[in-house]
Amino acid sequence: MKLNKIAQIVGANDSNVPSVEINWLLTDSRSLSFPVESLFFAIHTARNNGHNYIAELYQQNLRYFVVSEMHPEFEKMTDAVFLKVEDSLKALQALAVAHRNAFDIPVIGITGSNGKTVVKEWLYQLLHTDYVITRSPRSYNSQIGVPLSVWALSESTQLGIFEAGISEPHEMKRLQPIIRPTIGIFTNLGDAHQENFSGLKQKCEEKLQLFDQSEVLVYCSDNKLVEISIAQSAFKGVFFSWGKSDKATVQIVQKEKTVSSTKVVLKYNAVESSVTIPFTDDASIENALQCVAVMLYLGLKTAEIAKRILLLEAVAMRLEVKEGVRDCLIINDSYNSDLNSLSIALDFLNQQATAKKLSKTLILSDILQSGQTSDELYKTVSGLVHNKNVQRIIGIGSEISKHADIFELVDKTFFEQTEDFLKSPILRELKNEIILLKGSRTYHFEDISEKLELVTHETTLEVNLNALIDNLNYFRAKLRPETKIMCMVKAFAYGSGAVEVARTLQHHRCDYLAVAVADEGAELRREGIRIPIVVMNPEKGSFGMIFDNKLEPEIYSFRLLDAFIASAEKLGLTDYPIHIKIDSGMHRLGFEPKNMEELLTRLKNQNQVKVRSVFSHLSGSDEAKFDSFTKQQIDTFTDCADQLSGAFSHNIMRHILNSAGIERFSEYQFDMVRLGIGHYGISSLPDVKLKQVCALKTIILQIKTVKAGETVGYSRKGIVNEDKRIAIIPIGYADGFDRKLGNGGGEVLVNGKRAKVIGNVCMDLVMIDVTNVEANEGDSVEIFGDNLTISEVAGWLKTIPYEVLTSVSRRVKRVYFQE
């Protein structure tokens, strides 16, 4: 769209706006690819301000900006164009509405508590041979994500599929005109994002606003609250329901599960037919049936629907980072294969590569069903590759191979088929690289992944980086915009891997990190972490490492203070930042209130160190019975902090709240808070369900039948009173699976069913009872995660979640992923 037309749409009536072509909309300064064709919307949120990144983007040759405030430095950017509006986010949404209105095509809008992304991707799998489809990349369903998704509609688009998510009232009203679906899908209703609604009924009614102007609404009538809410809504289109009731448009007559699939008999227009869904879990069956209903509405024959449904493939909704052969890192993304998702994946590649200082390689297949000519498509792909500084591209497919000459200034190799690449010596030459696998499903890039991934211990700790940031933002929402956050990454980031966690927190603009010892901080510096790092337990022998890596020590005693001042003096350092700890009642480390006068005297009589912050630690902020003592601690700390601040002219930050403190005493947030266990999904409030960041998983190595009267494991502790099926899994106390979980003390999850531990826990193996569980060798086993929480495991062990997390051995491979 021309920039002068955009100016009119967003209400920035400036006659001097040029008529340049804008192809890319940008809301994140880190995602710039095509500066000449991009327009940046500087969005002001509670925690950040996009206007602060305009100078950085200007340096990268971006010249077009939508702003809601004018900063003095903008006046120096004489060749930049600033479209001044009242609200940049509303301007972005208004532009998306105008763009959507230019298309008279069917558009599917999807909302619900769960399953939105899977239904969207499955509809793409099922319908991409019938239509040129534009769809939301990944899970772009927010107030910003939806307009960016709809902007991708082009002249070649024949069908749009967009998802919409909300977390509070009134948000759907803004998304409805942007998507304006002609076909609506309501997936289901659950308690996700429930905290901002008075109840499920209100949330249901809010979500239903997406379909105000839809021609048809597809939904499951078995959910009575959804059924009632839809019946009472102002919806005037066609109800296309499916469910067990004979009143449903599509009646589910019978469901029959086998080991690997589910046969569903359904009746539509008084005619029975059947489909076989290649999944057995209830969520996948429900998502597949939503797709069946949509295809029936679109007029596809039942025989053709059955044929397509049988070929459904699981949706990998995450970018996984895994160790590869020859010191490579592998990012596997076979989720979306289009320009938008490629740009997102390349941003993630850059984020990982920058810190690890690895060269960047893209293995890319033909991009199918783009709606563009091949020349246009691969010219844009080449631009992305160049602007994201990819050093090597390996193209697989006939179309991308035909356009090899378009890719300039990059090491390039092309193959017609995946099999050709797998036979090539280039596969074995890849080393010290971070490799993004981005392939359409028909190219079977899982075969490439299998060759490149380092085969190690089959027990893994999956770390969900999206959940980490969602939890960070949950706590951020309780703070003033100016309050800083110090994130704890000590003890290997509570077992989840300090480097990856720190890199993600830095990327999302955390203010401070905290480690236990200097070695941990030095490792983060080596891996490219630049933000301030506090060392909570500095030792005299580590002072040199602290200075060399610009780490900031916690000072809690006169002995430590004198020693650190002396070391700084030897190096000729002045005003080196330190953080003073006050013992306000926990009686662990820290200066006591009676020490304040002497402390102030010593600090004033030197210039080697400068106090950057003063802090203390609450001992019982997570329990209401200690609230009076917590407030006493805060009063004691405030008095000491006042004395310290009053003695110096510079600003000294204050912080006392930990994770539980942020939730329960946010009025005492002072200048900064310290977030620890809250990152990883542990809340102090019983009605709050944070996202689980870590999931410990393994597989079944072997299954055997043990006869009644025999025993299992060391010391014959596992007594079998009747014939049992016993599964052996490769995890033991050397991996962090506590011996107290043996002999029925703990359980694991296999295919959604719980299985008790039988016999003693071994160093490397555990035996579980799967007599009543449908299990096979090779099946995945959840030790803890989304379905079996860390808190529950901690309860069995009579300990706390911290210990469960930090006990996971380093020999357990960490797998990081981003949705």
Automatic annotation (TrEMBL):
PANTHER family: UDP-N-ACETYLMURAMOYL-TRIPEPTIDE--D-ALANYL-D-ALANINE LIGASE. Belongs to the alanine racemase family. Coiled coil: none annotated. The active site is at 490 (proton acceptor), 714 (proton acceptor). GO terms for molecular function: acid-amino acid ligase activity; alanine racemase activity; ATP binding; pyridoxal phosphate binding. Catalyzes the interconversion of L-alanine and D-alanine. May also act on other amino acids. This is Alanine racemase. It is an enzyme of class 5 (isomerase). The modification N6-(pyridoxal phosphate)lysine is found at residue 490. Keywords: ATP-binding, Isomerase, Ligase, Nucleotide-binding, Pyridoxal phosphate. Residues 693-817 form the Alanine racemase C-terminal domain. Pfam families: Ala_racemase_C, Ala_racemase_N, Mur_ligase_M. Its EC number is 5.1.1.1. Signal peptide: none annotated. Substrate binds at residues 588, 763. The keyword Metal-binding does not apply. One of its GO terms (biological process) is D-alanine biosynthetic process. Pathway: Amino-acid biosynthesis; D-alanine biosynthesis; D-alanine from L-alanine: step 1/1. It catalyses: L-alanine = D-alanine. SUPFAM superfamilies: Alanine racemase C-terminal domain-like, MurD-like peptide ligases, catalytic domain, MurD-like peptide ligases, peptide-binding domain, MurE/MurF N-terminal domain, PLP-binding barrel. Its cofactor is pyridoxal 5'-phosphate.
